[in-house]
Amino acid sequence: MAEASYWKNACEQIEYRTLLARKWLAHRAPREAQPRRHVFVGGMQRSGTNMLMDLIERSMQTDVFHERDPRAFDNYIMRDPDVIRSLINQSRAPHFVIKCLCELDRLPALMDEFTPSKGLWIVREYRDAVNSALVSFSRFTQQVERVAKGQADGEWFAGGMSDETKRLVRELWHADMNEATAGALIWYFRNLLYFQMALDRDPRVKLLSYEALVTQPAKECEQVFDFLGLPFSPFITSKVFASSISKKNPPPVADEVARLCDDLMQRFSAVRNAHG
Predict the structure, then answer these.
(1) Are 42 and 106 in contact (CB under 8 A)?
(2) Residues ≥6 apart with Cβ < 8 Å to 256
(3) DSSP labels for 25-55?
(4) Bridge-based pairing state of the strands 73-74 and 117-123
């Protein structure tokens, strides 16, 4: 089993590096005189942004910057706009694509600064997102406590929070809050920014469902590529699978926080339904 996994990862690395080499060669050709298109990929951590970035990176027309790329990020935080603009100027691809997770509250400002721009906001069902986050991260209760005690100013996870949201966090916080409940509460107030910033009415932003993307990859991804002005081919989604949906038992999220998350999921579903 370990040997099979090793060779699978090795083959994937070879394929990825081959793709990047092909793109590098393609981007050496003179680019047509047209405005650069900028794409910001946003969403809560563990909501499928990595998968979405990988799909977009399979296009020959994109230059993609993941949050692990030190050229564009410092410890997962996007570098100053002047640095990003320098990367844009150096890029020869018609579409410059960059992660926007810790900067969710700045998404409208970033799209205003780098024009023309499009934004993608992907949402994953909160139980699966929390389960995944509990494996990869920690200190959710500490982060919620800092918000509740007014000690999170300047922290990315508290960026853009309204006074009403801060009040809600203060009301919900208690010393015995478990990690799953704290993670779900962070999922809630970070995704709530989508509505607080009126992105449901911003034609530059497309809302995506993680579950829809992995269960209907060709249909959903083709719509995404059409929105971005990119050509689509079956190659793009050839490695998308739905095995991560409801893979684990639901996390132990407190009822009052679960209700908030359920209500927010319904609001997202309504937006998706309204936009077809």
Answers:
(1) no
(2) 172
(3) HHHTSPPPSSPPEEEEEEE-TTSSHHHHHHH
(4) unpaired
C-alpha R_g of the chain:
19
Q: Which of 133, 125, 71 is nearest to 96 (CA)?
A: 71
pTM: 0.88
Which one, of 102, 100, 120, lies nearest residue 110 by Cα? 100
* For residues 112-120, average pLDDT: 97
pLDDT of 1? 52
Token duo for residue 229: 């002005």
Contact 169, 148 (CB under 8 A): yes
Tokens of 194: 């989508």
C-alpha distances out from residue 170 to 123, 175, 221, Å: 25, 11, 39
- How far apart, in whole angstroms, are the C-alpha atoms of residue 250 and residue 80? 39
Retrieve residue 77's tokens: 């935080």
- Residue 6, pLDDT > 50, answer no
State pLDDT tens for residues 210-249: 999 999 999 999 999 999 999 999 889 987 876 667 677 9
